[in-house]
Amino acid sequence: MKRCIFYIILLLTILIIGCNSEGDKKPNISVSEAKKTLENINKGLVAKDREKIEAYIERHKLDSINENQSGLFYLIWGEPSGPKPVTGNIVILDYKLSLLDGTLCYTSQNGKPKEFMVGHGGVESGLEMGILLMHQGQHAKFILPPHLAHGLLGDSDKIPPRSIIVYDIHLLSVIAN
User: Fold this and answer.
1) Is there a single domain that holds both residue 52 and residue 101?
2) Are 114 and 108 in contact, with CB atoms under 8 Å apart?
3) In CATH, what number is assigned to the domain containing residue 151?
4) 160 C-beta neighbours (distance < 10 Å), count
């Protein structure tokens, strides 16, 4: 967290130095240099996120976990009892959402599962990606890095800024719309 704050302060410093109130002077830093700096900061943050996720996977012995091209880590198990969701379907699921340290943030209540329409937003992009890999009746564990979860800001409630989140899912139903 301290490094994240350091990078944000560094970025703001670069932007302030680069801005100049006098319109006839050239900025001290070029756009391409600023872009490279931001890219390097982002690469550093992504690398730190990956280290944390890999440590979690090792700690929990999730040897058979997979990763997609976007950085979603997923483990799906159980026999399908129905269709695979597609964009436009309504899915109903029981879930538990926690942080990497095990802190429980949200969970579906007994008799009140989560419901959403696939492909229409309203949930984390990583959750939608994961749901599209499942079939009705299956269980899954999804590990979402910040860029697939709540990003730089968190959810302004229980999920802090730049958090990696873990979903434990049971896909109860897929309803064609």
Assistant:
1) no
2) yes
3) 3.10.50.40
4) 15
